[in-house]
Amino acid sequence: xxxxxxxxxxxxxxxxxxxxxxxxxxxxxxxxxxxxxxxxxxxxxxxxxxxxxxxxxxxxxxxxxxxxxxxxxxxxxxxxxxxxxxxxxxxxxxxxxxxxxxxxxxxxxxxxxxxxxxxxxxxxxxxxxxxxxxxxxxxxxxxxxxxxxxxxxxxxxxxxxxxxxxxxxxxxxxxxxxxxxxxxxxxxxxxxxxxxxxxxxxxxxxxxxxxxxxxxxxxxxxxxxxxxxxxxxxxxxxxxxxxxxxxxxxxxxxxxxxxxxxxxxxxxxxxxxxxxxxxxxxxxxxxxxxxxxxxxxxxxxxxxxxxxxxxxxxxxxxxxxxxxxxxxxxxxxxxxxxxxxxxxxxxxxxxxxxxxxxxxxxxxxxxxxxxxxxxxxxxxxxxxxxxxxxxxxxxxxxxxxxxxxxxxxxxxxxxxxxxxxxxxxxxxxxxxxxxxxxxxxxxxxxxxxxxxxxxxxxxxxxxxxxxxxxxxxxxxxxxxxxxxxxxxxxxxxxxxxxxxxxxxxxxxxxxxxxx
Length: 515
Description:
By secondary structure, the chain is mainly alpha-helical.
């Protein structure tokens, strides 16, 4: 457990803060500035609540029911009711890290002083995070506008002491029991507070931030496996020369080419393509164009990071308390900016998986592998080698292509046509999480095949970085060439090797830090 403390102020949080709280369970504290801003905004809401004129979210119904004025005697019930009625999710529970990210990001918006909730509401949410209490949030229920309503409602329900949650030991129990054990008083919601807890893009944004962190590691990993495959195929590293990429100055392309070149430094395997009976003039596209494809994905990732950064600095609620004291309705809860980049990343990830699979297939085909045994088998015909590992990889690629179909173009009207255009950003985020998992497995299969192929190139010394990868992979329990064996455990260990960052960690002591 990470005992680092993240302080939440009025100006937003960083992506690193989100990852620390979501994955490493860093503690959360509200700054004095945030507590002052919360109190000041609450004074504005209390003053409006005392007036006879209706104010949306304070003294009216919600959505298509906003035309009804709600008297003071029913307002506490109104806020409880919106949480209970909107906590309507269905399907499997989403991952703990996603719920923690969602709660932390909602706390970030509360701390901005733009929502009008009392300081004690924000303190209670920080208390849940610090206690390791994670509300049960379901897969289905968000249209991504007015934010992630159902997921956020399940979290707000937990603040009220209702529903179920996962305790710090991972056991799901009634929230009331968990709050009592940790000395957290259930929140009795007042004007606007129920609405303020529900009305944001926090779920889709949390998943975007986590995906960006994972994809950053995967793009570096894919550069490494592409270099290993180039080496195993006796390809040329001359196409990676900086001057070639300088004349098409996409930053991601240059970074990927530089990564590959550093991995291949000192190899005796590269550059043999003109020494065969039928010399190759050029390597195949899946090898030669690896920096162009991975680089385009890197640039997509950079744009997604810009969008995430803007959202992390935002206060998303409706209505909002402005610095001059006005309370205004708005449409900032619409998830389009986040939904678009979630879909864009799924497209880029699918293409990275596709080119990695093509390289793997080339390694296994003796007609295109330049002297390697069929399927990298010890005794082809008796042994099948990695034949079906490529099938598994191909199945994952095919699934990634389906996951690349955009969710954000599929608006569906809701709330009696009041909310007649929605972002589907939550759905885009959910499928991207699956795509990132699949991409990790695809890269792991290429790693498994490329390292075996390098070891089968007898008499030639691989690059120092390649030797470091092979040694670390074998130490992690992934076996090298030999007769057929039960393959699934090897593939699972290779997956863990990539997923946990061990591939990058094995290379960088040799190459220095990679992009």
